[in-house]
Amino acid sequence: MTVHCVRSLARCAFLVACFTSLGGCRMGAPIHVWSPPTLRSTVGHSVMVPKIVGPQELATPIHEKLLLAAPADAGRSTRLVSAESINASTPGFDQGVSLVSYNADDESDLALAKKAQQGHIDFILRGEILPDRRPRSITEAGNRLTVSWRLMPVSADVQAPTEGRPLGKPVVVELESALERYPDLALAADKDVALQSALVRETLPLITPAVVRERVQLEIPYLLPGTQAIRRGNALAVAGRWGQAEAIWQEVYQRYPFSSVAVHNLAIAAVAKQEFGLARSLASRAVRMKPTKLHQQTLVWVERAQRAYHEAFQLPDPPEGWSVTRTR
């Protein structure tokens, strides 16, 4: 048997496996979805941010950048204020007895809570810069910034149970990964400014909804009607052009309504534009048409994405409820 024959047989075997296997063939594509706050949502509330504890050459610019970065868009609007502004803006503000802590520059929780209550503040977000304990011989030394954050509810209106959520979380930013995630920071004046800006961007998702990048699995058809068109749509989705990809998959589905591949990929495209009801309907249809492992996994992922969206913006459960995921 010639080498050419062996290669042809191997290629055919691969195509047949993709065509007949329950799992199907797939490819990864990036997609952006909403994620709920890591600690607790402060949307629609006021948050007092006291001076950050740590070296002031780092703490002061982080504090200033964070106050300026308070989101104001619908669904994420949060009021961030400094402790000093409470003193100046609250008529008849009573300093009372200054309770000391272990750090002379760090006001106690009780003192801050009293100040926040007098200023009608809902939450306190406290930060402390943690030292880099790694050996100085490590080449990355000096290129990492860590701040430990702690969120404290103050007003009676927000004293609800935390539902198992942590009250604090450290945010760790490394220069190389920060520049990859935020390419615009390469234009910063120096590495300290880049690290500080990246840390602020990573801090806001602790208390407000945030867009996160995930990787989803698109299905690749073989030896089926509409194969070439679906592959073109897949390539567009990988490039982030979900609208164009959806149009191609929709055309394939209209011509070949038995294409479970087109239905599956359309379900993911619906998530990309936050049409979760449509996405769940399409994902369920793909499972009914062909109950592969990929289709079942996608159905669960779609509902999880919808749950995260509802939790991020504190929306009620959808009328149809939840069918394949459990309440957290």
TrEMBL record:
Keywords, ordered alphabetically: Signal
Classification via InterPro entries: TPR-like_helical_dom_sf (IPR011990)
Signal peptide start and end residues: 1-23
Highest taxon above the source species: Bacteria
Coiled-coil regions, chain positions: none
Name of the protein in its database record: Tetratricopeptide repeat protein
Organism: Stieleria neptunia
